[in-house]
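DATA SHEET
Item: assembly model
Revision: 1
Owner: S.N.
Input lines:
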Amino acid sequence: MTEVLEAALRVVLVLGVFLVLPLLVGQTEHKAMAHMQSRLGPMYAGGFHGWAQLVADGVKFAQKEDIVPAAADRTVFKLAPAVALIPYLVVLVAIPIGPSMVAQKLDLGLFFVLAVMAVGVLGALMAGWASANKFSLLGGLRTAAQLMAYELPFILAAASVAMAAGTVSLTGIVEAWQPWWLLWQLPGAVVFFVAGLAELQRPPFDMPVADSEIIFGAFTEYTGLRFALFLLAEYAGIVVLCALTTVLFLGGWHGPFADELGWLWTLIKTMALAFVVIWLRVSYPRLREDQLQRLAWQGLVPVTLVQLALTGVVAVAK
Amino acid sequence: MSQSGKAIPGAGLLQGLIVTMRTMLHRSVTDQYPEVKPELPPRSRGVIALLEENCTSCMLCARECPDWCIYIDSHKETIPAPPGGRERQRNVLDRFAIDFSLCMYCGICIDVCPFDALFWSPEFEYAELDIRNMTHEKGRLGEWMATVPAPPPHDHHAPRPKEVDAALKSLDAPARPERPARKAEPAG
């Protein structure tokens, strides 16, 4: 009985984190992006500096009509937002926040996380194919091309850390982590983060949803709550990517008073990375499709290969 | 910011990050308009105010208006003759209206008014839900007179207004000698 209760409690906790952190990132994006453009951002909702803006947005989305185009593949069309969103929820279960704070300890944590994260992109592909819209299809195909290009450096960079730690358990990786890894694994960390951004289709890698060319890519035909779910998936993806980068490359809960405040360190590092995600979005223009592919195949993949070799040499020599 | 090929790789990327970060750390330029009134520049053209007492119904403004948005009605009134004089007539303004849905804020009416009856006011909050309500009669135009600012001071190195010059000149000039009374010349 207690086991069931404990499991339920963990699931509820993860769900809470899953619902709160993306909104926090979204609100930070509203405000940080506004100030980076010398604006104020939302100021009215909720009274104090627009803190309730995303709640208001949620209410707005809930009120909107849920439209399915006549020519759409109804089942796939309706299922796509769930396929985009749920993998990130599942990934969150396996990410350790503190030394013993993980919803579900997995020995194959890294494998699990990478495999499930890749499923999330399927949501965009399904949406693009099922919408019966040329813009959606183009967006879906661009998503596919981007996934093909960036999944490889993403996984190779993660593999480098696993090699260094000698384990694929996420908790094990953080436990094996030492501060000098920051330098040793730096190229891998950068590649992991950049490739992750590209998989999330965040600017400057937002070619698949480039609104000035293809409206909103695969999500063009979506309205109301289903559209909101796609947006939520994007922000949940940011949280998951930042948490993963923290766990793999930034030492997770390592820091002063790690025994008591380990979870806080993980959280701080995650949010700092989320801020970097927003910062990059504001600073850089969108990459063209050919630039995207060139960056992946001529930039990131060779760097990760060098990183893998370096990791191998140092790990053997140690 | 150098565009040459010799720049350090990634310098441009760093520059972009610095620009956005610096902007974020500075105060944003947004005016929170309905709560905070904007600071309008001098001579702002918000609306045209009418000083009814100065208007002589001469119609110059209505005739010069490029899109004919000024409507003037007037009638003549006869002032009873004072003792030993004769009757005079004067114009009485019945209607003065400006249709701000047509007005293009060129200000020609204000420039052309010889009696200083029209003024620019910086007041701009007179939006209406119906375009037909944009025609404002002399009562409303007169209310805007209260919002007309004092004329801004002259620019620093601008020449003095010629009226002031003339007045100063007459002050500085030595008192003119009394002109001798003209002698009555005997008729030749």
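QC remark: The helical segments of chain B are 11-25, 60-64, 108-112, 138-143, 162-172.
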